[in-house]
Amino acid sequence: MTISWFQAALLGLFASLASMPGMGGSSIGNYTLGRPLVGGLVCGLILGDIKLGIVCGVAMQLVYIALVTPGGTVSADVRAVSYIGIPLAMVAITAQGISASSGEAADLAKSMGTLVGTIGTVLFYGTATMNLAWQHIGWKAVEEGNFKKLYMVDWGLPWISHFLFSFLPTLIMCKLGASAVTALQTALPMDGIAMKTLFTVGALLPCVGIAILLKQLVEKVTDFIPFFVGFTLAASLGLNLVASAVISLIFALLFYEIDMAKLKANSRLVAAVAELEDDEEEEDI
Q: Which pLDDT score, from 0 to 100, does residue 200 have?
């Protein structure tokens, strides 16, 4: 598999759209197009292998499933993971002759995505730093009362930042990086220590993402029970993700109904106590 300049340019365009809130807002840009799960489909469509793109996207999404950016602090840039890591992972998997449905393909994709995600952090902070200059221009326009200039500050000038730190890096890394990845095929054979280490590390990376997610969700020991039910169902019944998601939806509905019943019972108890106190006050009078 090779990546042409046109395909690299399309990947750079989607990397820019994924990081620019003005293009449809953060919900469509950063939290939809920027996610590896969606980026895998987009990369698959651009590079002509939808199945391999989705496999790489799903594998990388597991690693960053609990990624948050509190106060703008970014440990990894999923925009770079989606539109630099996934294309390069697709090229590497194809060059090594690995089947898209094998576990080795997913492990290699996770390793590639983690490497690029760390590099992408530099691009993220570069974009944020350059945007400070446009913010200064915006404040000056407000002080001068030139509010129409804010449209240029909000919608025009940020394109410069994203062109320099999103489009160009994605274009260059996808085009030139694909050739480098292909060249590694002869330097790093599949049975070598380097590739075996890469696959081993990639297989362990989803544990990090799931552990971070558990740290955010689990408040008491009993919260682990619903979590382990999914693993039990998948291991014992061989259920896929769709079937497990449907069963989890049933559990979520049951928990919701139980919580609502508790709230109604508590509200009735409070109302009964209030009514009893009113009756006692009337009797005292």
A: 65
